[in-house]
Every structure is written in C-alpha cells, then in structure tokens.
C-alpha cells in the first residue's frame, strides 16, 4: 500500500486543512438566527445601522432575510428579485427548529406539525 497523498497543504505549516478554511470562509447565518433578526426590535436595529466603512455600502443597505449587505439601493432592489432571495423567503416561512421539537422527535411528547410563519420582503424607503 502506498501512502495517501496530502491534499491542500501547499507546503505551509499555518494552513493544515484548506478545505475546512474554505467551508467556513463563506459562512452565513443559519435560519434560526435570521428568525431572531426578523423580530421587530432586532430588525429596526439592523436596518438603521450606523456608518461602518468596513462593510459594503457602509452598512446602509442590508437584506434581513439573507443577512447580506449591498453597495447601494439599486443592487438591494435587484437582489429582491433574484432566485437566492426567493428561496430564502421560502425557507423562512417554516417555523425554526426548537429544543421542544427535538424532544418530541425523541419520543418525549406527541408530534406537532411545524407552523407556517408569514414572511414578506422588507420595505425599502428611498432616501
């Protein structure tokens, strides 16, 4: 038997597993985290952020459902018509998974079907 080939190291001691780094590089918020952001108090805070020069569009154009920043209002409106945004809206229409649901699935209660949540695309105001 031959030794298995080491993949993705590029002769660097710092990067032991490049595939793991690539998977976490584009990590986005999970559905339950976005449901938390959709609550009115959190949504208001996210939509009216202070200027942050490190983020695209200085953090002024944010999509709550996809957790993404956009350069300007035009690209944000174009994003609302994309498949990616529509798929995310469809995912958010189902109630997030909870600990109580996990316990019911393990036999510690009777099954209750997940509820549907009303989710619509956020309103964008012209400034």
UniProtKB/TrEMBL annotation:
It comes from the Eukaryota. Gene3D superfamilies: Classic Zinc Finger. Residues 1-20 are annotated as: Disordered. Residues 61-85 form the C2H2-type domain. GO terms for molecular function: nucleic acid binding; ribonucleoprotein complex binding; zinc ion binding. Keywords: Cytoplasm, Metal-binding, Nucleus, Ribosome biogenesis, Zinc, Zinc-finger. Its main location: cytoplasm. InterPro entries: C2H2-ZF_Maturation_Protein, Matrin/U1-like-C_Znf_C2H2, Znf_C2H2_jaz, Znf_C2H2_sf, Znf_C2H2_type. GO terms for cellular component: cytoplasm; nucleus. It holds the Pfam family zf-C2H2_jaz. GO terms for biological process: ribosome biogenesis. It is found in: Cytoplasm; Nucleus. Associates with pre-60S ribosomal particles. Belongs to the ZNF593/BUD20 C2H2-type zinc-finger protein family. Involved in pre-60S ribosomal particles maturation by promoting the nuclear export of the 60S ribosome. Negatively modulates the DNA binding activity of Oct-2 and therefore its transcriptional regulatory activity. This is Zinc finger protein 593.
């Amino acid at each position: 038997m031959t030794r298995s080939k080491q993949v993705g190291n590029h002769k660097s001691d710092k990067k032991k597993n490049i595939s793991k780094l690539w998977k976490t590089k584009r990590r986005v918020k999970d559905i339950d985290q976005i449901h938390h952001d959709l609550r009115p108090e959190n949504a208001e805070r996210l939509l009216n952020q202070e200027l942050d020069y490190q983020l695209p569009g200085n953090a002024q154009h944010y999509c709550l459902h996809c957790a993404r920043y956009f350069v300007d209002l035009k690209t944000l409106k174009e994003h609302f018509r994309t498949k990616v945004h529509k798929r995310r809206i469809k995912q958010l229409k189902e109630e997030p998974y909870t600990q109580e649901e996990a316990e019911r699935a393990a036999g510690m209660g009777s099954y209750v079907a997940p509820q549907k949540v009303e989710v619509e695309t956020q309103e964008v105001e012209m400034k």
